[in-house]
């Protein structure tokens, strides 16, 4: 009987690939066949749902091809292993029975987690489905399945939110686990301080020995910082070998991180690498609805949908737009209508087509982003707060429009073409050395051409 199942799965392996087979098919087991129904078991709810929506039909087709019988299937959860996994995605699971033998004193709640970033406030959609499901699986069974879990994607798409959500959930359901959450930047600073102040032993113990779950945000930050990478490598190994969960976020896949050591990028690839993309319209509207409810804003669905149509780049900007609309409405004591939204968000109102991106668009967007006036970008001030945005605007103008260097110089208040060439060079190299510059450039570029169509070589 089991053969029908195993044969079909193995028959599918070449088509689906080894990784998919190992990850999603192998954990599903056949318990019994009753009449024409396969009784299957899955190790947890997440695996069950994922298998059901993505692979069940494929497997049933394959079995039908082999046996000429169309089976139905019923999937149950396998008897839980100790400690029991958390119940259904309950927003705030209430744990009445703490899991296995507890240390006398429970570790304190993890530092630095925002109360707002929990699973129940995270809207799932096609753009983040894999990342969210994998994060949920990790939160339920830390150290068991995806280790490390690596989530990557552009700015404001929910990576940090998921990381916090995992931390909260593990803490709520397994309070005995010691969870450490921090940004890669802070990891580096702590490491440097520890070395300087002769407190390396404490540092080592905190990250390598007394940590059950390590959540690190924006790991790309340590790329190119040799000693920090080296230390992170040892931390990774120590935790991984001890079966501790590691979850990491970044703005790109490991292989694309310039300056990241090969031995680290390869380790970051060991578990599951999942991306978050820009949300589709429906997800954006759902996010707005939730945010409006959380903030107690009374805004109709049509208006929310209208905002979601105008703001397409990322969730942070979506939230920003909502706050802006709400603030203006309050200031002007105006009802929030579609027309009002259109007015308040007028600079976002025309989604830009690749061929229509102009230097003016770039200037306007860059100025807004850095809270400057377009006149500042065109003016002569050399203060860094102005000169950097100006250089970024020049760089993006060169990249996204057909304008020549002299033309760009002209449009930035009559500057020399060599100034523009210089600016482009500097921004190009700063994108490697300064993460903030890269993030700003990428965010702006995405806003100008959300579909990534307008890239010039
Ligand atoms: P990232 O770390 O990818 O730059 P964040 O996690 O900081 O992005 O998300 C930016 C903002 O958008 C946060 O306020 C976050 O709560 C919100 N957000 C992002 N994705 C979602 C989502 N799918 N559902 C609800 N809120 C989201
Ligand atoms: Mg983040």
Task: Explain this structure.
- By secondary structure, the chain is an alpha/beta fold.
- It folds into four domains: 2-77, GMP Synthetase, Chain A, domain 3 (2-Layer Sandwich), CATH 3.30.300; 119-276, P-loop containing nucleotide triphosphate hydrolases (Rossmann fold), CATH 3.40.50; 281-343, Helicase, Ruva Protein, domain 3 (Orthogonal Bundle); 355-456, Chromosomal Replication Initiator Protein Dnaa, Chain: A (Orthogonal Bundle).
- It is built from 20 helices and eight strands.
- Strands 5-6-7-4-8 form a five-stranded parallel sheet, sandwiched between helices. Strands 1-2-3 form a three-stranded mixed sheet.
- The chain is globular.
- The protein starts with a helix and ends in a 9-residue tail after the last helix.
- Residues 82-96 and 452-457 have low confidence and may be disordered.
- Magnesium ion is lined by residues 159-160, 217-218.
Estimate the strand proportion. 5-15%
Mean pLDDT: 86
The ordered H/E elements are HHEEHHEHEHEHHEHEHEHHHHHHHHHH
Unreliable sequence segments: 82-96, 452-457
Q: Strands of the largest sheet, in order across it?
A: 5-6-7-4-8
CATH superfamily of the largest domain, by name, is P-loop containing nucleotide triphosphate hydrolases
Helix content: 40-55%
């Amino acid at each position: 009987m089991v053969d029908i199942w195993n044969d079909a799965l193995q028959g599918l392996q070449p088509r689906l690939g080894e990784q998919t087979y190992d990850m999603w098919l192998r954990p599903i087991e056949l318990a019994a066949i009753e009449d024409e129904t396969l009784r299957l078991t899955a190790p947890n709810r997440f695996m069950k749902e994922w298998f059901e929506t993505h692979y069940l039909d494929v497997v049933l087709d394959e079995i039908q091809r082999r046996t000429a019988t169309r089976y139905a299937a019923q999937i149950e959860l396998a008897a839980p292993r100790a400690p029991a996994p958390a119940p259904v995605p309950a927003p705030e699971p209430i744990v009445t029975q703490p899991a296995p033998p507890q240390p006398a004193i429970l570790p304190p709640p993890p530092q630095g987690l925002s109360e707002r970033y929990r699973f129940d406030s995270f809207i799932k959609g096609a753009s983040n489905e894999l990342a969210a499901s994998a994060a949920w699986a990790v939160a339920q069974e830390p150290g068991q399945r995806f280790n490390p879990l690596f989530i990557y994607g552009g700015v404001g798409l929910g990576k940090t939110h998921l990381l916090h959500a995992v931390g909260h959930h593990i803490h709520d359901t397994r309070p005995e686990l010691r969870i450490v959450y921090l940004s890669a930047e802070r990891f580096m600073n702590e490491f440097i301080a520890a070395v300087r102040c002769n407190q390396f032993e404490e540092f080592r113990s905190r990250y390598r020995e007394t940590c059950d779950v390590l959540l690190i945000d924006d790991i790309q930050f340590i790329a190119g910082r040799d000693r920090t990478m080296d230390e992170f490598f040892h931390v990774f190994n120590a935790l991984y070998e001890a079966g501790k969960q590691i979850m990491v976020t970044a703005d790109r896949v490991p292989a694309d991180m310039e300056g990241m050591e090969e031995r680290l990028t390869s380790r970051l690839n060991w578990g599951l690498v999942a991306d978050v993309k820009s949300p589709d319209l429906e997800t954006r509207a759902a996010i707005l609805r939730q945010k409006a409810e959380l903030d107690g804003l009374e805004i109709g669905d049509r208006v929310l949908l209208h905002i979601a149509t105008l703001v397409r780049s990322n969730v942070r900007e979506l939230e920003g737009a909502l706050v802006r609309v709400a603030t203006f409405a309050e200031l002007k004591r105006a009802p929030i209508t579609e027309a009002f939204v259109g007015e308040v968000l007028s600079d976002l109102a025309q989604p830009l087509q690749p061929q229509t991106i102009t230097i003016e668009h770039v200037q306007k967007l860059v100025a807004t982003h850095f809270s400057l006036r377009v006149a500042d970008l065109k003016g002569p001030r050399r203060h860094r707060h102005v000169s950097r945005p100006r250089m970024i605007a020049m760089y993006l103008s060169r990249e996204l429009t057909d304008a020549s260097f002299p033309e760009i110089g002209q449009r930035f208040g009559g500057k020399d073409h060599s100034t523009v060439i210089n600016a482009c060079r500097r921004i190009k190299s700063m994108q490697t050395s300064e993460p903030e510059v890269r993030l700003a450039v990428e965010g702006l570029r995405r806003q100008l051409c959300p579909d990534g169509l307008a890239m010039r070589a």
